[in-house]
């Protein structure tokens, strides 16, 4: 129809988009170039504890430690097949490397076992400081001729490993998508259109992530693959619409009509996916918000690319599309429709039984909250090295107790109490660091004791104590009580070191050297263990990082610290797991309820029925229960984050498959016998479901098999398995449930009434919608309904059935029913 006759608003919008395609191309190219640069501005967070709620002990304690203390970089360096004498030589080599602060090694089983030596190395800088990174690389270089294994967070090596793995995953995912499209497409030339459309959306999404400031490594790793799997459907829908309209229209007109029809259809389809992702953003554990927002943005940008960029591409590529048609490679599945119909009374009963057992098994899954408690199918070099080191020397659980500073005696008593716990192997705090002859660096000494310890003349010691008291404003001690005046050793050494340039003490050279060494050690110790306001005590425990025993032991430690301090923090992997467990218990209920409510709300207004959405939810929820009964049946741990993310995506995305089946079936059952309606439904829905489903399943399994990070791998595996289960239930169980639940659907249906008026027109009239009344003239239309009267016409598609006399007639007000 010409522009001046177009009354449909959507077609007017579509016409503007198609006609202004060159401007749109320019805008997209410019935006893509910008985003190709801005994607490098995105900050990626590698610590999932960063997303804990701000009121948790772990988050508060970690923030405090980052602000108040310095944590030097460390590395475990293990050399196998060496003697103890050779190990001592290796220790000397490591100690002489620039940037190495200290090397802990002795002849105990903690450092030498089964001809393997473990060196605990501390660097001069933090994990991200260049001095630590250079020293770590130098260690590996100088010991490369040995049977060497190292494990460290210095330089964040896992980031490079994950980025390399995900690059391979992305390439393989694209190859799979192209392969699927080659088999399910109608023409070969539509494939570059689909890839350009998706590529633009992917680049825009990656480039706009910097607006969030920082995203998690989980989101950064899998967002592009999930965007591809979740959003490629939208482009396929528009492409198929264009092919249909192209049969009798020019490319421009076909693109306009196709877009005007596809916008409402695609928008409605995306709502369920967005609903599932939106539920993630309500999690207390903010990694869900991080992933939910990035993926919602990915969906919206995909819609933008499909609605704005793709119509113009279809017009430009239309000559090639016309020339590259090929036969349909997707087979008919009549056998499945017949089998489904034959088992319509059996499969729903079996499904109900399986769903009940699956629900029970999924509730018994052993949820874990530390990544290390699960295993990925593929292991990287760092994981292999860590497992080998742990197998020979074990792995300690490290905790930090943070208490207000200023009372060394109280700290010493606390250290003594926690040292007596059976599972505590080592305690490090300023109050238990021995200086000399049984004195600790926080012990309080009088002038006589200090002079004997430091080998100073008593008069010199008195002079020092007098200066210290005057500096602290404690003048009374100088006059009346100097001999009994006690000062913590660490404070006196600090004062002595500060005043050495101002006061001539005539110290022996060996004492001067000892003071230099001690001053450096004290400075490092204070950076790690003491600030102006807080002290840190580090515990090493021989227990797992999580589990009931570990959480009970954490409560015991809390109780001991509470005897001495009201304000304190206990920070470590066990505390983190405890906080994550508490967060999960709330988030699990919240996500489950919100996801279902959001999806039901969308479906109710889509189908104008309350019963049908509930039946669809039952199918997908059943697939989720089946999916997460697998960990229990296979005796594997289930990382809590995997369940939260996959269940939300599975509900939001897989429900689309059920919608496709339901739409087709509800339409066809009005025109033909139920058996044929079911067969045709599955035949018509199969290409759409197999195309989208294969992409999502493949994306999930590729991520699961090819990534070594436990969290990312588990998300991929369970997403692949869950989607596979959903496809099976949608294709083989949902049709029977629709049959069995037909009465429920009918009883719970509703319509939104619109005011109608009788239209009288004469001439050539285009009809778009349902018409009830009398038609007199020549008709050229697709008609679905009952006509009472006489007909003299050709039927190009479909058939005409003469109804027997006595058949129930159409309503009195209806003389014809057409679309």
Describe this structure in words.
With 819 residues, the chain is α+β, with helices and mostly antiparallel strands. Helix content is 60%, strand content 10%. The protein contains 28 helices and 19 strands. The strands form 7 sheets. Strands 2, 3, 4, 5 and 6 form a 5-stranded antiparallel beta sheet that branches. Strand 11 (434-436) and strand 12 form a beta hairpin. Helix 8 (217-246) packs antiparallel against helix 25 (674-706). It is elongated. Residues 1-7, 753-758 and 808-819 have low confidence and may be disordered.
Beta content: 5-15%
The rounded Rg comes to 36 Å
Specify the structural class.
Answer: alpha+beta
Uncertain segments: 1-7, 753-758, 808-819
Which oligomeric state applies?
single chain
State the helicity in percent bands: 55-70%
C-alpha termini separation: 19 Å
Shape, principal axes of CA atoms = elongated
Total helix count?
A: 28
- The count of DSSP E runs of length 2 or more, i.e. the number of strands, is 19
What integer is the average pLDDT?
84
